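Comment on the following before class.
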Amino acid sequence: MDTRTFTVKPVGIVHADDESFSIEIAGPFRPALRELGGFGHIVVLWWGDRVDTPERRNETVCKKPYTRSPETIGIFATRSPVRPNPIALSVAPVIGIDSVSGIVRIAYIDADDGTPVLDIKPYLPATERVRDVNVPAWSSRWPQWYEDNQGFDWAAEFTSEE
């Protein structure tokens, strides 16, 4: 087993409140925003800092996270930030970019206010979109396209945390 360790340095933080979402890029990384404005969506890699504990990093299975899932499910079959390395990924629609202030305004992100952002990549249909995809039966009723999420009752799909 590879025993190397890595140092990860945040490039920014998430700002989220009841009315808006944005990512504030740290000063040294603001030049990296050049030409990002032409993309309609970005892929945001963020650190699940609120679940980053030794105990949570050792969790490999979870109890029925989705209403239609099996009673237990491997953590790699979820999008939960609870995992050996609490790296999470979100696709976010870009509303606007202010390169000078380092603010990337986005329509939504499922990260909390103050969440560290590790990286941003442009969403590229040629590499991210898959035409013929397979999913387990328990998730087959979920929307097939990002745009179809808006009217979908996601709250009904998740079991309540105890």
